Automatic annotation (TrEMBL):
Keywords: Amino-acid biosynthesis, Aromatic amino acid biosynthesis, Lyase, Pyridoxal phosphate, Tryptophan biosynthesis. HAMAP family: Trp_synth_beta. It catalyses: (1S,2R)-1-C-(indol-3-yl)glycerol 3-phosphate + L-serine = D-glyceraldehyde 3-phosphate + L-tryptophan + H2O. Its EC number is 4.2.1.20. Pfam families: PALP. The modification N6-(pyridoxal phosphate)lysine is found at residue 89. The beta subunit is responsible for the synthesis of L-tryptophan from indole and L-serine. It comes from the Bacteria. Belongs to the TrpB family. Tetramer of two alpha and two beta chains. This is Tryptophan synthase beta chain. One of its GO terms (molecular function) is tryptophan synthase activity. GO terms for cellular component: cytoplasm.
C-alpha cells in the first residue's frame, strides 16, 4: 500500500486538481516545477538555513515526565509551539515563499482560521519584502484578535470573509476568488495539506521536517527511530501530515489522527470529517467532506478556529479509508480539559488545536513501555480569551 501521492496527484481515490480554467496555468506551472525547485541545492540550502536561524529548528523532542506518570506511558512532545510565530505553520510558509520567488511571483495571498497560518505568511512576506493579503472569516477575526493584530503589525492586509459561516472555509473561498482575478503575479500560500495537486504534497513535504527530526531525536533518547504511536490533531491536516510523513510505511508505528467533534459527533455541531464525511470536492481536491444529502457543504463547528473545517486533506482521507490511521473524535470539552491538564502538569499552555491531540490520553489506553509522540503543534497565547471564557479564569 502506498500512502504518498501518485503521479496523477492522488492518494488512492482522493486528491487531484479540480480547478477553474483561469487557475489551470498557475497550478500546472507549480506542478511541473515544485519538485525540481525543491531539489535544487540553492533552494535546499536557503530553506534549511532559514529553518535553523530564523525559525529556530530543530524544535525539541521533550520527554513529558509528569504527564507520562499521570498516564503511565512514555510521552514525548514535539515542541512545534517553540518555533518562531508559535506553531508549525512557518515551516510551510518559509518553503512556499522561496518557491514563489523562484516562480517570479510578487504578491502573496493566504487564508487563515486560527490566524497562525496568516501570521506565518505575513512573517515571511515581511522577511522577503512581498505584498501580503490574508483572508480570514469575520467570526475568526473576532475570536483570534491577537493574531489579527500581529498580521497587521507585520504589514499584511487582513480581509474579512463575510459569507457562509464566516470561518476558514469561507476565507479559502475568498482567497481562491482573488487568485482567479490575479493569476499572473500572485502565489497562493495554502496553509494546510489541502487544495489542488500539488499543494497537499508540497505542504506535506515542507512539514515533513517534523517527522524527520522526531526520528533522529528519538534515536538519541530511546535508542530507536520509531515510536509506537504518533499523535496529531487534524483539521485540513498539515501538522499531522508532517508528523506522520516518515512513518507512513513503517507499519509498526501506530498513527492516530484526532478530529474536532465539537459539541459531539451527532450534535449537528461538529467537524469530525472522517465519521461524518463522504466523498466530495472542496477547494480543488476530491476528499472526505461533510455534506448534506444533495451535496451542499455542511457548516462545521469547533471551539478551535484551526479545526473548524468541513473537509480533510486527501492524504488523511486515504489514511482513514485504508485503516492506516486511527481517527479519534474529541469534543470541545475533552480538548479544553486536556489543555488545562498539560498546563498544570508540564507548565506548557497549548493551542486549543493541539489540546485535541492530548485528549486522546483520556480515551485510549497505552502500555507503560509504549513510546508515544504527540505533536504540540502550537502554543496557547492566541487562545487565552477562549480559555478565560471557558474556565471563567
Amino acid at each position: 500500500m502506498n500512502y504518498n501521492v501518485d503521479d496523477k496527484g492522488y492518494y488512492g481515490e482522493f486528491g487531484g486538481a479540480f480547478i477553474p480554467e483561469m487557475l489551470y496555468p498557475n497550478v500546472e506551472n507549480l506542478r511541473q516545477q515544485y519538485l525540481k525547485i525543491m531539489a535544487e541545492p540553492s533552494f535546499k540550502e536557503e530553506f534549511d538555513q532559514l529553518l535553523k536561524d530564523y525559525v529556530g529548528r530543530p524544535s525539541p523532542l521533550y520527554f513529558a515526565k509528569r504527564l507520562s506518570q499521570e498516564y503511565n506511558t512514555k510521552i514525548y512532545l514535539k515542541r512545534e509551539d517553540l518555533n518562531h510565530t508559535g506553531a508549525h505553520k512557518v515551516n510551510n510558509t518559509i518553503g512556499q515563499i522561496l518557491m514563489a520567488k523562484r516562480l517570479g511571483k510578487s504578491r502573496i495571498i493566504a487564508e487563515t482560521g486560527a490566524g497562525q497560518h496568516g501570521v506565518a505568511t505575513a512573517t515571511v512576506c515581511a522577511l522577503m519584502g512581498m505584498e501580503c493579503i490574508v483572508y480570514m472569516g469575520e467570526i475568526d477575526i473576532a475570536r483570534q484578535a491577537p493574531n489579527v493584530a500581529r498580521m497587521k503589525m507585520l504589514g499584511a492586509e487582513v480581509r474579512p470573509a463575510l459569507s457562509g459561516s464566516k470561518t476558514l472555509k469561507d476565507a479559502t473561498n475568498e482567497a481562491i476568488r482573488d487568485w482567479i482575478n490575479n493569476p499572473v503575479d500572485t502565489h497562493y500560500i495554502i496553509g494546510s495539506a489541502i487544495g489542488p495537486h500539488p499543494y497537499p504534497d508540497m505542504v506535506t513535504r515542507f512539514q515533513s521536517v517534523i517527522s524527520e527530526e522526531i526520528k533522529w531525536q528519538l534515536k538519541e533518547k530511546e535508542g530507536k527511530e520509531n515510536p509506537d504511536y504518533v499523535i496529531a490533531c487534524v483539521g485540513g491536516g498539515s501538522n499531522a501530515a508532517g508528523t506522520y510523513y516518515h512513518f507512513l510505511h513503517e507499519e509498526e508505528v501506530g498513527i492516530i489522527a484526532v478530529e474536532a467533534a465539537g459539541k459531539g459527533v451527532d450534535s449537528g455541531e461538529s467537524a469530525a470529517t472522517s465519521v461524518l464525511g463522504k466523498m466530495g470536492i472542496i477547494h480543488g481536491c476530491k476528499t472526505l467532506l461533510m455534506q448534506t444529502a444533495d451535496g451542499q457543504i455542511t457548516e462545521p463547528y469547533s471551539i478551535s478556529a484551526g479545526l473548524d473545517y468541513p473537509g480533510v486533506g486527501p492524504m488523511h482521507a486515504h489514511l482513514y479509508k485504508t485503516g492506516r490511521a486511527e481517527f479519534i473524535p474529541v469534543t470541545d470539552d475533552q480538548a479544553m480539559q486536556a489543555g488545562m491538564v498539560l498546563s498544570k502538569l508540564e507548565g506548557i499552555i497549548p493551542a486549543i488545536e493541539s489540546s485535541h491531540a492530548f485528549a486522546v490520553l483520556d480515551t485510549k489506553k497505552f502500555k507503560p513501555e509504549d513510546v508515544v509522540v504527540i505533536n504540540l503543534s502550537g502554543r496557547g497565547d492566541k487562545d487565552l480569551n477562549t480559555y478565560i471564557e471557558y474556565f471563567k479564569l
